[in-house]
Amino acid sequence: MLVVQKFGGTSVGTLERIEATAKRVIETKKSGADVVVVVSAMSGVTNQLVEYGEHFSKQPNPIAMDMLLSSGEQVTTSLLTIALNEMGYPAVGLTGAMAGIYTDDIHTKARIENINTSRIKRELRDGKIVIVAGFQGITKGGDITTLGRGGSDLSAVALSGALDADLCEIFTDVDGVYTTDPRVEKRAKKLNTISYDEMLELASAGAKVLQNRSVELAKKLNVKLITRNSFNHNEGTLITGEDVSMEAVLVSGIALDKNQARVTLRGVVDKPGIAADIFTVLAEKNINVDMIIQNVGQDGTTNLGFTVPQNELELTKQTMSTLAAAKHIEYDDQIVKVSIVGVGMKSHSGIACLAFETLAKEGINIQMISTSEIKLSVIVDQKYAELAVRVLHNAYQLEK
Ligand code: ASP
Ligand code: MG
After folding, report:
1. How far is CA 391 from CA 127, 358, 394, in A?
2. What is the mean pLDDT of residues 263-272?
3. Is domain 2-173 given the CATH code 3.30.950.10 in the classification?
4. What is the pTM of this model?
5. Ligand 1 lined by 149 (C-beta under 6 Å)
6. Which ligand minimizes its atom distance to the CA of 42?
7. What is the pLDDT of residue 80?
8. Residue 212 CA, distance from chain mean position
9. CB 52 within 8 A of CB 19
10. pLDDT in tens, 17-51
11. What is the second-level CATH architecture of the domain 254-396?
12. Record-annotated residues binding substrate (predicted)?
């Protein structure tokens, strides 16, 4: 039995927490499993390091930045290793490079290309607990890279896949994945199981328990993933292939994304190629366009609306000003996206209607709608954000 355990920033946020983490790891080791531990930097450290780097330059050299950022995880790796050894459990700490994690050379958001597991396997054979610094790797040329913010989750999942681990446990400071944000709806319930696809939709719709790329990779490599709380021994949420969840739930969660802004173009010339022009320019700037709606044209013009992340709105405005695409462009950042997610939506009609009725009853106007196989998203005025989540949570009886 091989278990990969990943501990996030708050779980290793103080020396006391690192000691608690060591004890948690020992429990697993004592149960007879081999353990590979992946750690994040102590909470707040990576942000601090980013600030330090940006003190000297608005666009710090990315290679130097990666050397800087990777240091946070090395601190926790070393401290946990020292603590475990002192408690009588032989442990070895490895940087991403020492652990054989090879990436491409896109610094500060590198992708893992392959993992040479021979060192880790040798240490495990020697009976050691192996601690690996998350969020980092090395290029073939020997430069340190980091994997993008939240990247320790990805390290843990990639290692689980490469080592063919039986289980990958992601420890955070919440009990698992909830039907919605418990700060918005007190009656939110922790889910015991959720499918990779639902988790991906919830995460991209604003629920931030796991980094999105790590869930994608877990799905691809079929890694058995559990997210749980390092501050208690509650059961957590199992994220797995959907056939395992036999509960026949229609809707599993409601996500709220406040980082949304809407762009409306009025009087767009209605001819082929216009949408291509607009969205190509936005894509070139790496702006993540989410929902798009276009009205039926009239008198040779049409209206086009789309949403972008709020923190990319400035860049969007600049970019749109270089295009003579529309007579009027309006921007609105006082909106939110509310999404209903559930694999049951694939096979049941009428799920969307309940959402529309529920919102209508509260007088909440829907500005945009989009659907996928397992998700329904609506854009509503920001002032209704919490109300919309609560009434929908209630309508789909998610507290049960
Ligand atoms: N320390 C990194 C970050 O804050 C990676 C991680 O915690 O997953 O983004
Ligand atoms: Mg994290």
Report:
1. 53, 7, 5
2. 89
3. no
4. 0.87
5. yes
6. 1
7. 98
8. 3
9. no
10. 999 999 999 999 999 999 999 999 999 999 999 99
11. 2-Layer Sandwich (3.30)
12. 46, 73
